[in-house]
Design a protein that fits this description.
Helix 3 links the parallel strand 1 and strand 2. This protein has 6 helices and 2 strands; from the N terminus they run ααβαβααα. The chain has 166 residues and is mainly alpha-helical. 8% of the residues are buried. Helix 2 crosses helix 3. It has a two-stranded parallel ribbon.
Amino acid sequence: MNVITSGGTTKALKRIASSPLIIKIRQYISDTMACSKNVCVIGAGVIGLSTAYCLSKCNANLKVTLISDKFSPHTTGDGAAGKWDPSNYHQTPVEDLRKWGSITYKWFHDLTYSDLAETTGISLVSGYHYYDHNVEEPFWKDILLHFRHLTESEMNKANENGYYDI
């Protein structure tokens, strides 16, 4: 797999790839993709690059192709923050989304408190989801460190544009 990155990014990816969690993920991928020969990853953002990198390192028999309309430094992730927020696309079973989301959240959480946090630019940031109608609680709420509904007072602080004034 050919990926164009800066030297700092390459060093960080190599150190991340040797973490115990990633070693477990590699084993899982290696076991489940033992017969695969070709894999295509769409997108060169943080998830696409991480996925392509892990796949290329976990199974020497895989040919990994990375396709994207933009590469670093011209991706959204180079200038804006990525947000962990698993979504249910194409009717993926919730138990799979929960398992994958939990693994990913733990990986990001561990990176946040590692000596790689500054190099990778990762940090833990609180956030809110606003809806103008009732919605089901997300399947991933128990994965987070803290999940709660806003109080009436907090809801009243949201202005008409949906921004939250602290």
